[in-house]
């Protein structure tokens, strides 16, 4: 195998691991549901995507087409945002409170003037 491919795969895995770590820390440290929902969905999509792209690159270098990796990547990129949106809508429907501060100019009744 070519050393450039090995270094590229290694870099993709390290970058993906960084995003997965950031998502896991965000899930553990953020204070409420909405903030916890945001961190892992965005970070895990990038993390899993990086690992699967590295796997596709390895498959191509070994003479395989990498169709399974491509299908998994597409599945993750489609289902993660959809499931996050559905969970957020359910939380809004249940009137789950958020600890995020509301900016003064976001609510029309609070606008100065």
Overall description:
The chain has 113 residues and is mostly helical. It has one domain (3-94). Helix content is 73%, strand content 0%. The longest helix has 29 residues, at 33-61.
Quick synopsis:
The protein is mainly alpha-helical and 113 residues long. The protein has helices at 3-29, 33-61, 67-93.
**Roughly how much helix do the residues carry, as a percent range?**
over 70%
The value of Rg in angstroms is: 19 Å
Structural class: mainly alpha
- The count of strands amounts to 0
List segments where confidence is low: pLDDT < 50 over at least 5 consecutive residues: none
- Specify the number of helices: 3
- Percentage beta strand: under 5%
Overall pLDDT confidence: 87
Would you list the SSEs in sequence order as H and E? HHH
How many angstroms does the end-to-end distance come to?
A: 68 Å
State the shape.
elongated
Summary tags:
single chain; 113 residues
Topology summary:
Blueprint: H1 3-29, H2 33-61, H3 67-93
């Amino acid at each position: 195998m070519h050393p450039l491919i090995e270094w590229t795969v290694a870099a993709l895995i390290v970058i993906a691991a960084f995003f997965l770590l950031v998502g896991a820390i965000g899930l553990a440290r953020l204070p409420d549901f909405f903030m916890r929902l945001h961190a892992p969905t965005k970070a895990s999509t990038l993390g899993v995507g990086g690992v699967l792209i590295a796997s596709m690159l390895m498959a191509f270098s070994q003479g395989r087409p990498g169709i399974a990796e491509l299908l998994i990547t597409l599945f993750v990129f489609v289902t993660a945002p959809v499931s996050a949106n559905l969970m957020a809508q359910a939380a809004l429907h249940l009137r789950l409170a958020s600890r995020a501060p509301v900016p003064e100019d976001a609510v029309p009744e609070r606008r100065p003037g």
